[in-house]
Design goal:
This protein is α/β, with parallel strands linked by helices. The protein folds into 2 domains: 208 residues, Rossmann fold; 92 residues, 2-Layer Sandwich (Hypothetical Protein Yjia, Chain: A,domain 2). 30% of the residues lie in helices and 25% in strands. It contains 11 helices and 12 strands. The longest helix is centred in the last third of the chain and has 15 residues. The protein is globular. The relative contact order is 0.15.
């Protein structure tokens, strides 16, 4: 089916560093009638998709692009995914893309401007960056690689959604907003508490401005190369046997406390022994949060899927220790 180019489809790119609250915001947006007939694309750094399973409020399938960032290694996948989407029979009013927390927005923006199919059929509405008010100073201070991704995400943002305001006071918000504006004076600032925002400030805002992007990156329309900090790795764990809840959470808390400085992100969907519902958890550095998820369907494989993203992680050790925390396993924590 040919692509209809008579009406350009608006695209919102939702970015933000690891654990900033992108999926929470995405879920809140999708509850709004303004987002009817929205195609959702979720990109994850590792091979296991956690965020796509946590997206609620959409009847259609959430499209997934895994095992790399769409700003580099799987960038061609983004173009082909959207091309196939626009060629299908499904009516689409807009496209919303949630990037990985390690994605540089510049090559993604370039794809929509330079690629002939995308430029003819779509238009960038806004690059929306979620800024974690609790951790942003720590991330901006990281000089371990030539490029600070958190700073790049803010610099290219048309809208900055400042999240986790329930965890800081008004002075903390003012400091965070000042930090954001020092990097990007033209950005629109939006507050988010538990992911709740004014949806009209996020979509259909027509905020993208190519001239501003070119002022930040004059080579935006040329061939851009983006390389990630090679010391950051993603460790994916799948466990078919049900986990022993008390043993696993004791291990997880110990692991996070021991590796919190270098553990950038962790998240998982857990199958716990004796539980009819899955358990969902996520964490940033030493902070952990968890809650019961939806019940397992009768014919659904009850598999635990966990992702750890950080520096200096030992994949073999992590997988071995988790496998020892099944109901038939033994405790690894005294």
């Amino acid at each position: 089916m040919p692509i209809d180019t008579s009406r350009k489809i608006p695209v919102t790119v939702l970015t933000g560093f690891l654990g900033s609250g992108k999926t929470t915001l995405l879920n809140q947006l999708l509850e709004s009638d303004l987002l009817a007939d929205t195609a959702v694309i979720v990109n994850e750094f590792g091979a296991i998709s956690i965020d796509a399973e946590l997206v609620v409020g959409v009847d259609e399938e959430v499209l997934q692009i895994n095992n790399g960032c769409i700003c580099c290694t799987v960038r061609t996948d983004l173009v082909s995914t959207i091309t196939n989407l626009l060629s299908g029979k499904r009516p689409i009013r807009r496209i919303l893309i949630e990037t990985t927390g390690l994605a540089d927005p510049a090559p993604i923006i370039q794809s929509f401007i330079v690629d002939e199919v995308l430029s003819a059929a779509t238009t960038l509405d806004a690059v929306v960056t979620v800024v974690d008010a609790v951790h942003i100073d720590r991330w901006l201070a990281d000089q371990s690689s030539e490029e600070n991704v958190a700073a790049e995400q803010i610099a290219f943002a048309d809208v900055a959604v400042i999240s986790k305001l329930d965890l800081i006071d008004e002075d903390g918000f003012a400091r965070c907003e000042a930090t954001v504006r020092a990097i990007n004076p033209l950005v629109r600032s939006v507050r988010a508490i538990n992911g709740n925002v004014d949806v009209a400030s996020i979509v259909d805002v027509k905020a993208f401005d190519l001239k501003n992007c070119l002022a930040i990156e004059p080579l935006l329309l040329s061939d851009l190369e983006h390389e990630h900090d090679l010391s950051v790795v993603s460790v994916e764990v799948r466990e078919e046997l049900p986990l022993d809840g008390p043993l696993f959470f004791r291990w997880l808390n110990t692991f996070v406390q021991q590796n919190g400085e270098t553990l950038l992100r962790c998240k998982g969907i857990l199958s716990l022994a004796g539980e009819a519902r899955r358990w969902v958890f996520h964490g940033v550095h030493m902070t952990l949060e968890g809650r019961p998820g939806r019940p397992w369907a009768a014919n659904e494989p009850r598999t635990s899927a966990i992702v750890f993203i950080g520096k200096g992680l030992d994949p073999a050790r992590i997988r071995s220790e988790v496998s020892g925390l099944t109901r038939s396993g033994t405790s690894l924590v005294a």
